[in-house]
Amino acid sequence: MEQSEIAARLIAHLGEDKVLASGEHSDQHWVTVAPGDLRSALQFMTEDADVSVDMLTDLGGVDYLDYGDDRPWRFEVAYQLSSLAKNHRFRVKVAVTDEETEVPSVWDLFGVANWMEREVFDLYGIGFTDHPNLRRILCHDDFVGYALRKDYPINKRQKLTRPIESLLTDKPEWA
Amino acid sequence: MGSDLPPIPTERLVVNIGPSHPVTHGTLRIQVELDGETITRSACEIGYLHRGFEKQAESVFYEHVIPYAERLNYMGPCHNSNAWCHAVEQLMDIEVPARGQALRVITSEMSRIIDHCVCIGTNLVDLGGLTNFWYLYNYREKIYDLFEELTGARMMVNYPRIGGVSMDIPEGWDKKLRGVMADMEGVLADVMGLVERNRIFVDRTTGVCAIDQKTALSHGMTGPCLRATGIAYDVRHAQPYWGYDTYDWEVPVRSNGDTYDRVLLRFDEMEQSRRLVLQALDGLPEGPFILDDPKITLPPKDLVYNTMEGLIRHFKLVMHGVSPDRGEVYSATEGGNGELGFYIVSDGSPKAWRVRIRPPCFANYSAFPKMVNGSMIADLVAGLGSVNVIAGELDR
Amino acid sequence: MGLESKLEVPYLTTTMDTVINWGRKYSMWPLPFGTACCAIEFMGVVSSRYDISRFGAELVRFSPRQADLMLVMGTVTQKMAPVLKQIYDQMPDPKWVISMGACASSGGFYDNYSVVQGIDELIPVDVYVAGCPPRPENVLGAVAKLQEKISREKAAAWR
After folding, report:
1. Is B131 on the interface with A (CB under 8 A)?
2. Domain spans of chain A, in order of start
3. How many helices (H) and strands (E) does chain B have?
4. Nearest CA in chain C to B144
5. Cβ of A98: how many Cβ atoms within 10 Å?
6. CATH class of domain segment(s) A3-129
7. Cβ pair B372, B395 in contact under 8 A
8. Alpha carbon of B68: minimum distance to chain C alpha carbons (Å)
9. Which of B217, B239, B362 sits opposite A115 (nearest CB)?
10. What is the dihedral of CA A141, A144, A145, A147, to 10 degrees?
11. How many CB pairs below 8 A link A and B?
């Protein structure tokens, strides 16, 4: 199925008013929705027989501060979806207005979202509701700030100076 | 009398494995809760090699990301930079000439072979079979010699460029490559002979850390880990690039999803890579190996030193880089561990606005706690080696 | 050893130094603290072509209690830094550190929020090896240089 067709189906399912943006570049299409519509969009993508998404390939945040266009939101979280059965891909993006907006977690739909959402939280500070274990995953636990935001300077190092005993006895995050 | 005795207090022991541990192959930390010898719960902690690749890529030119990208999956480095250049080319909608594509296929498959050599070798070392490590590493050194002759460096070769590859193959290189590929048969026979029907290996890996298809898909697993469960998904086959659909090769697949299958699948993949390399060499097209576009690729050196236009083109590209139009792209290729994806957002400037890497290990490793619950620590050791978690890619 | 104070013949202690250092330098047991790509090149050093075993350093011991040469191979991040310090502290004297590669020596080309710019911020280093990754011959050269350094040491200095 062509990506443009998938986009049309998704927009038809959600309703034109729910779609904040849609676009295309290099033959790849995407649709941007508000956080409240994310779960219904992803559920539609997995349940529709022709779209039939079976894998969440990637989940990543983007910070559009000073990007230079007129989008009214600061962050986006991009969900790259794949259908192995039908051999096509699609991108659904969620518009996160500012630091306080939270996105519903999709870890129950796709197991890999557990860690990927933690990474978006660690590097961007975007909260995910109903996430079982929203903690930092890549930066150390004493890190203050969110490293990949555009206003975090690249060279601002933060040392981890706690004695190792406290690090070894940290409560494990059981899976 | 028995009922007067107080109950025996039992406590589950939490054992910390890593982050500096021979078996974790890098900087992984796993904490397991043991009930006797059986693992009841496990917690995987990552991030000990978080080198800030994504932030770094936002602060350098697109071409300068090539060495950073190479150090992602450092077992098979050349493929990562090939994949990065492919992503930028998709973003800019340009196409690499046929010779460049074939050279990319050759170097990527060589990277896949060396990646699997190390993975299998170190996995077997963890199980106690040291001999195979020497055999496979010796073979890896032969391929390193080829890379060194081609580019000057053994591991981090910095070979591709946006629009093609940086240099052509030297005289006699293809003969040497054919010789090394012919040697593979002997090496694989040696190693397989020690491993495939070895009682100890079979007992230690059959049924160990098995995963079913549904969990694998839910956790976004790709690559050998997914193909070992029976789903024949390979990005080179599903969405071909660099001419993979013109070669005659198969996607290896096995069915049980356990450690035995993952290890033997890697042997199968090495054989398929050998076929691809030989076919690419046989059909190596004549012509340029890099695009000739003044805004994207550097001119040949004799033009730089002898013509004004060449000098200016070189200067502009080195000082100001390439500037793709505004837009975004998600580009996927098949790395040694699975689908390696780059999601690039560009803003029209020579530096990327956002580079997100989709690491194959991240998805594979996120399923590891499920794979390991109910087994023993020795099984964890066997399984972890077969999943081939590379911290450079996992933590970026 | 308080021999110098008891004996009046200094040549005896220098001969003892030579013997002790000879023993130490030709039987170093490496602790490969490998984090990234340099660790793979170290695996090449250990394997058959560039055998480190001919320098006496074959027995890699992952336990710091049993090792005396720590090879830090690869990028050390802020999260890993306490672990590195802990492992170094756990090693008994005499101990030496080789910092292999650009990332361990100076942070490499990762000048950002999460990478320690050189392990000498954390632990004392004896030999730095340049390269990204260094060739196996570089690593063997570093081991040889360290052996020279050890032969110039006073054995009593490690009390």
Report:
1. no
2. 3-129
3. 17, 8
4. C44
5. 9
6. alpha beta
7. no
8. 9
9. B362
10. -60
11. 117
CATH H-level, domain B52-395: superfamily: Cytochrome-c3 Hydrogenase, chain B (1.10.645.10)
Within the 4-23 window of chain B, which residues sit less than 8 Å (CB to CB) from chain C? 19-22
Q: What is the ipTM of this complex?
A: 0.93
Name the residue ranges covered by the structural domains of chain B: 2-44, 52-395
Give which of C77, C79, C89, C119 to mutate to test A binding, by max A Cβ within 10 Å.
Answer: C79
- CB contact (8 A) between residue B56 and residue C110: yes
In three-state secondary structure terms, A81 is strand
Chains that touch C (3 or more CB pairs under 8 A): A, B
Interface list for B 41-70 with A (CB within 8 A): 41-47, 50, 52, 54-56, 59
At B208, the amino acid letter reads: V
User: Would you call B396 exposed, middle or buried from its count of C-beta atoms within 10 A (0-12, 13-18, 19+)?
Assistant: buried
Dihedral in degrees, nearest 10, Cα atoms B161, B163, B165, B167: -100
Longest dimension (CA), chain B: 103
Residue type, B9: P
Whether C35 and C75 have beta carbons less than 8 Å apart is answered as yes
Per-residue pLDDT of chain B (396 residues; tens, 9 = 90+): 556 788 887 788 888 887 888 877 778 888 898 888 899 988 888 989 999 999 999 999 999 999 999 999 999 899 999 999 999 999 999 999 999 999 999 999 999 999 999 999 999 998 888 888 889 999 999 999 999 999 999 989 999 999 999 999 999 999 999 999 999 989 999 898 888 888 999 999 998 899 999 999 999 999 999 999 999 999 999 999 999 999 999 999 998 889 999 999 999 999 999 999 999 999 999 999 999 988 899 998 899 999 999 999 999 999 998 999 999 999 999 999 999 999 999 998 999 999 999 999 999 999 999 999 889 989 999 999 999 999 989 988
